[in-house]
Design brief:
Layout: E1 6-14, E2 17-24, E3 31-35, H1 47-55, E4 59-63, H2 82-90, H3 101-115, E5 120-125, H4 127-138, E6 143-149, H5 163-170, H6 177-191, H7 200-213, H8 217-230, H9 234-237, E7 244-249, H10 257-266, E8 271-275, H11 287-295
Parallel strand pairs: 3-4, 3-5, 5-6, 6-7, 7-8
Antiparallel strand pairs: 1-2, 2-4
Helix pairs in contact: 2-8, 3-4, 5-6, 6-7
Length: 299
C-alpha cells in the first residue's frame, strides 16, 4: 500500500493562540480538519484513521485545541469551579467563564488562515462537534461540509448522561504516569458501546503518549466551562445551509443518541447515521464505515 505523505508537527499562531498541528496527504487535495473533544489530544485521532481519510483523496489536518496537549495553555484566565457553574446554570444565573466554544471555533478558523486555506471540511467529535457547529454558525464561508460525531446542539431539554459516564468524565485524572494510563483505559471501558471491542494494550500505549505530550487539568476545566456556558445552538443551527452529516452511536452513555438526532433535525437537510452498539467512542471497528460516510459528504 502506498505510503501517505506526512508533515509535522508544527506550530502556528491561530487567533492569537499557539496551536500545534500535523497533516496527512497531499496539500492539493480537499482539506479536512479534525476537531478533538474535551481533554482530547490530536493524537487520539489515530494515525491509521487519518491515513484512511487521506487515501480517499483528502488533505487531513489534526491539531491540539487550546489548553490541551502541546498547544498554548491559557492559565492567566484562572481555573473555573465547575460545580459552581452547574449550580448557577441550574438557578438560571449568568455565568462568566474564561472563554466560550465560539472562541475555540475562532482558533480553528485561525488555523485555516495560518495555513492559507480558504475553506475546509470539518469533522468534530463530542466537544469538537460543538466547535464545528459554532464554525458553521459564525463562519459558514470557511466550511465546505460539517460532520458532527457523538455531539449535541446543547439543548438543555435533551436526555442527560448516565451517572456512570458522568462520574468518569468528572473525576480528575491521576497525575502519575501509570495511574493516568489505568484511568484512561477505565474511561474507555465505561464509555464504550455494547458491540464494540476494546484494545486495551493499544489504548494504554495511546494514554502514555498523551501523558508524555503533557496533561493539563486546569485547561480541561476551562474547556468544560466553555461547554457549560455556551448554551444551546439549536435555534442558530436552523439557519445552517452547509452539507451536514451527523454520526452517533445508539449506545452512547455520555451524549445520548437523542442528542445526535436533535442535531440532525436542527440542520436543514442533514444526513443522520446511527451506528448500532457504539458508545461514546470512535473504535477501529467502525473506522471504514465512518470514513465511507464522511467521503460521501466532504468535498
Amino acid at each position: 500500500m502506498k505510503q501517505v505523505p506526512y508533515s509535522g508537527p508544527a506550530f502556528v499562531k491561530a487567533n492569537g493562540i499557539d496551536i500545534i498541528y500535523d497533516t496527512f496527504g497531499d496539500p492539493g487535495d480537499p482539506p479536512i480538519v479534525l476537531i478533538s473533544g474535551l481533554s482530547m489530544q490530536m493524537i487520539e485521532w489515530v494515525e491509521r484513521f487519518c491515513e484512511m481519510l487521506a487515501r480517499r483523496g483528502y488533505y487531513v489536518i489534526r491539531y491540539d485545541n487550546r489548553d490541551v496537549g502541546l498547544s498554548q495553555k491559557i492559565d492567566e484566565l484562572g481555573v473555573p469551579r465547575i460545580q459552581d457553574l452547574f449550580q448557577k446554570v441550574a438557578r438560571g444565573e449568568h455565568i462568566k467563564v474564561p472563554y466560550l466554544l465560539s472562541d475555540m471555533a475562532d482558533d480553528a478558523v485561525g488555523l485555516l488562515d495560518a495555513l492559507g486555506i480558504d475553506s475546509a471540511n470539518f469533522v468534530g467529535v463530542s466537544m469538537g462537534g460543538m466547535i464545528a457547529q459554532e464554525i458553521a454558525i459564525h463562519h459558514p464561508e470557511r466550511m465546505r461540509s460539517l460532520t458532527s460525531i457523538m455531539s449535541t446542539t446543547g439543548d438543555p431539554n435533551l436526555p442527560q448522561a448516565k451517572p456512570s459516564a458522568m462520574t468518569v468524565v468528572m473525576t480528575p485524572m491521576p497525575l502519575e504516569k501509570e495511574r493516568y494510563a489505568d484511568a484512561f483505559v477505565q474511561v474507555c471501558r465505561v464509555l464504550k458501546g455494547s458491540s464494540t471491542s476494546l484494545d486495551e494494550p493499544a489504548l494504554r500505549r495511546l494514554a502514555l503518549r498523551c501523558f508524555e505530550r503533557g496533561i493539563h487539568p486546569a485547561g480541561v476545566a476551562r474547556q468544560l466551562a466553555a461547554i457549560i456556558a455556551s448554551g444551546s445552538r439549536k435555534q442558530a443551527l436552523n439557519g445552517v445551509k452547509i452539507p451536514t452529516l451527523v454520526i452517533h452511536g445508539d449506545s452512547d452513555p455520555l451524549v445520548p443518541v437523542e442528542c445526535g438526532i436533535d442535531t440532525a433535525n436542527a440542520i436543514p437537510g442533514a444526513k443522520l447515521k446511527i451506528i448500532k452498539g457504539v458508545g461514546h467512542e470512535l473504535p477501529p471497528d467502525i473506522w471504514k464505515e465512518v470514513v465511507d460516510a464522511i467521503s460521501g459528504i466532504a468535498c
